Amino acid sequence: MIGLVLAAGAGRRLRPYTDTLPKALVPVGPEGAEDSITVLDLTLGNFAEIGLTEVAIIVGYRKEAVYERKAALEAKYGVKLTLIDNDKAEEWNNAYSLWCGRDALKDGVILANGDTVHPVSVEKTLLAARGGDKKIILALDTVKSLADEEMKVVADAEKGVQKITKLMDPAEATGEYIGVTLIEGDAAAELADALKTVWETDPQQFYEHGYQELVNRGFRIDVAPIGDVQWVEIDNHDDLARGREIACQY
């Protein structure tokens, strides 16, 4: 199993940082600190802590910044990095971005969004949930109060995920998908095909629509509740401030 990070996004709501950096490299350490850690640093640290030695990173917007740091990140976290170019990063949404990493999926991956600050307990929870016939397991926050923007999930104890979308009454949701997934290698081909169906239908779709496509085809997707842990998806400057508060705890 390897790590896989989606780090191709522009993150325009985080300007001026993202004038020169992809969102995954926006600093989340103390404001103004030199060589501050980034979301990518935190994610690679988590992967290293659970014993992963290889990580694929899907890059696109301002990818040169990731290429420039590649050797230093490999040395710091003791992992081998493979960078995968997304040629549509500034035009299309992340269903296509994850599809670009379809070959990496064959090894089995822990996938992490490049804008999610979270503790290593999330990866450990996914690994602990692994086994049996489970092929895809979503990290799910069942504690947080939900609103309109969150990626909400309805999950059934017997049937697994039934629905995953932002367009849902929060009261109906079992919880929020936090952007971290364990994907077994034998799910790779089916997931890649579902993602291709999604982005060919609408290039602006999220990769979570690929999960929904699988569910609609009768594929079982499981969830693993992460408990009461501090995490944040960094989309704007308020999120970034929260990310800095959380990052210093880890």
TrEMBL record:
Keyword Nucleotidyltransferase: yes
Molecular function terms from GO: nucleotidyltransferase activity
Top-level taxon: Bacteria
Residues of the Nucleotidyl transferase domain: 3-148
PANTHER family given in the database record: NUCLEOTIDYL TRANSFERASE, PROTEIN LICC
Keywords on record: Nucleotidyltransferase, Transferase
Pfam annotation, one family: NTP_transferase
Protein name as catalogued: Nucleotide sugar-1-phosphate transferase
